[in-house]
Please model this.
Amino acid sequence: MKTIWHNFKEGLISLSNGLGLAWWVEIVTQNPRCTYYFGPFLSSVEAVSASKGYVEDLEIEEAQGIIVNVKQCKPYVLTIAEDLGERIDRKVKPAFSGQV
Model:
């Protein structure tokens, strides 16, 4: 059961993302040559905190040359695999979806 706060926060994130004001974690890896976007987040603090887990996952997958940027943007493609010439369209959903 979602709480009122959860619904309110999800609404704020959706609104700020629609306006291009939400915070996203952009991670660029040199090997493989990919760009990943994770988010949206309501604040840069939340995005920075979440980025640690994303980096850990990429390190486990043996990605190299990991560069992390936290920025306000509105990405339309969430994974760009430059080595493969692919754009992988993961569904955009709030970072906390599925949490109670």
